[in-house]
Amino acid sequence: MTKFARDEFDRVPQSSSRQGVHRLVASASRPALWPVLLLGGIALAVGLVAFLILPKLGFTSSTTPQAVVTADASKQSAAASPSASSSAQASSQPSPSDTPSSTPTAITATPSTAPLDKTAAVAVYNGTTTGGLAARVAGLVQGGGWPLATVANWGGMPQQTSSVFYKGAAQKGNAEALGKLLGISNLVDSAEFQQPVVVILGPGYK
């Protein structure tokens, strides 16, 4: 350790506080956030106005609703068409007991030896648009000696001509006699009717 004379630099102060000029380190400045928040709020308000208010004021496309209405109308008409056609077919079909299942073979009235049984009830149906025709013909049938079963308008399949339907060979004589009485030449053997003899008056009958 050298021995030099003590000077002013050898005097160490007892306090540890700094002396002299010192610079204060300034903290880094942060960017302000309020402009970003303001722009976000404006964008949110514009989006809500465009989504909620503009449709109520009428700022929408006019072609889309019309297309939807047209599509709904076409679906309803397509859904209604099968039911209308099925109801029309159901109304035009006759009951099973009154309509022959197959096209019968017409038999021209010719003289035969078939027995005549006037105890068999005869049904008379009007298959024309002439009112009261069935009642008038029923009077002729009853005047000829046969009892009457049903006298009404025909509700089955449209008939092309007047016919006398009879059930089996036992009623053939009655069919021939009625055909001669009423002027009907089309005699049909059919088991589709409940009555033994049925007279259906077709177009042109007077």
Low-confidence stretches: 61-71, 77-110
C-alpha end-to-end distance: 163 Å
Order of helices and strands: HHEEHEEHEE
**Strand order, largest beta sheet:** 1-5-4-6-2-3
Q: What is the number of strand segments?
A: 6
Name of the level-1 CATH class of the largest domain = Alpha Beta
Mean pLDDT: 74
CATH topology of the largest domain: Alpha-Beta Plaits
Radius of gyration based on Cα positions:
54 Å
Structural class: alpha/beta
State the helix count: 4
Major sheet characteristics: 6 strands, mixed
Description:
With about 210 residues, the chain is an alpha/beta fold. It folds into two domains: about 60 residues, no CATH class; about 100 residues, 2-Layer Sandwich (Alpha-Beta Plaits). It is built from four helices and six strands, in the order ααββαββαββ. Strands 1-5-4-6-2-3 form a six-stranded mixed β-sheet, with helices on one face. Helix 3 links the parallel strand 2 and strand 3. The longest helix is centred in the middle third of the chain and has 30 residues. The radius of gyration is 54 Å and the shape is rod-shaped. It starts with about 35 loop residues before the first helix and ends in a 5-residue tail after the last strand. About 20% of the residues have low confidence.
